[in-house]
Amino acid sequence: MVTVWKVMAGGLLLTLSLTLLGWGAEGQQNRREKKEVSGSTSVYLGQERDIWRPLIHTTVNLSEIRSIKSSFQFRTFDPEGAIFYGDTKNGEDWFVLSLKEGIPLMQISKGDVLISVAGGPKLNDGKWHTLEVSNQDKFVILDVDGSNGLAVGMQSKQMDEVLSGKLRLAVGGILISKEKMIVQFEPQMDGCVREGNWLNLSVPWQTEVEELWPCCDRVKPGSYFPGTGFAIFNTSVFPIEADHGVKVEFQGDFSKMDGTILSIRAPGQELMFDLVASNNKEEVSLTFGKEKLSMKYTVKRLVITFQTDLLQVLQDEDESKTTTLSINPTSHPGYLTTWREGRLAFGGLLGEGEDSVGSNFLTGCLEKIQIQGKDLDLDLGVKHKSISSHSCPVEA
């Protein structure tokens, strides 16, 4: 199912304009003058840019290196993304540390050797972990919180050569073509790196973004919407099953949300569905065609099931609060067409036109979004740069 979502989301990218998601001149930041930062600075890895480009990087002479260890602190709830990269010979020999399904993944190219190894503890638990990467004889070692997490051994005819020239280091991206890697992964990560000590060097690092986004002091799992954009999927990614339909579940403190949680519309048609939280009215309202259902905003969990002939809404765990709305071809003539050709927007109200700008964007944290009982990764859709897909800030 995840693979299908990626394919459909990729197709949607071709049909949406930059205006729809609020992108524009900001996408040209990579062309701006590079700025210097400290290598120990806090780096939010999910910051918007070309997703494969590092957020910070530096170049040093190999003759200046006296230490073979780099250490830093790392925190994320995201199961996948690029963390740390290094290379020599202008990218001929390289190293990449990333996460895949929450587990550390190291990929190394050295001369005629290409290696990929995954292992160690899952790191996407939202806690700060201290990671140390080092070279020990013919091994590259990853230590996690002082314990051995992953070791990669290499043997090559070129291992004993004396290295000279430049070493490049990067955080949050890579400096080579992604096609060179054995294992492909989604690079952008909702996570943070801080207190980096890179080969015991004090050289400045460079960033190509105008300003590095800060890391939140405290975070919790969820998807955070700051009120500036939404995430979009094709409805065809989630086909209605004859027996079970499509079940969408939301969890969170709805009393602290304001704006559109979910909207569904097909191009050229009227809005089919929206779910809205209102602080002013102190309610959560669901509109389906001309029918409207109002609920108390103290609700913590909503399960909405779309079927061919009915729409069912369950509030919290109380079966007595289950509401069923009948669907028939007369009152909802375009219902199934919308599921074949429409779009779902999480965190905003879809406009009428193909490239129209959304509105009534959501402010707040959805602690869980599930489709068919599986967590929905907003990174697999087309989302506004301001949305954090895997973490929400915790109020002090």
Automatic annotation (TrEMBL):
Q: One MF term in GO for this entry?
A: androgen binding
**What is its quaternary makeup?**
Homodimer.
Q: Does the keyword Repeat apply?
A: yes
The record's subcellular locations are: Secreted
Q: What is this protein called?
A: Sex hormone-binding globulin
Q: Which UniProt keywords apply?
A: Disulfide bond, Glycoprotein, Lipid-binding, Repeat, Secreted, Signal, Steroid-binding
The cross-references to SUPFAM superfamilies, in alphabetical order and at most eight, read:
Concanavalin A-like lectins/glucanases
GO cellular component terms? extracellular region
Q: Which residues form the Laminin G domain?
A: 40-215
The task this protein performs is described as: Functions as an androgen transport protein, but may also be involved in receptor mediated processes. Each dimer binds one molecule of steroid. Specific for 5-alpha-dihydrotestosterone, testosterone, and 17-beta-estradiol. Regulates the plasma metabolic clearance rate of steroid hormones by controlling their plasma concentration.
What the entry lists under InterPro entries is as follows:
ConA-like_dom_sf, GAS-SHBG-PROS, Laminin_G
Organism of provenance: Dicentrarchus labrax (European seabass)
A Pfam family assignment:
Laminin_G_1
Signal peptide start and end residues? 1-24
Q: What is its main location?
A: secreted
Q: Which CDD domains match?
A: LamG
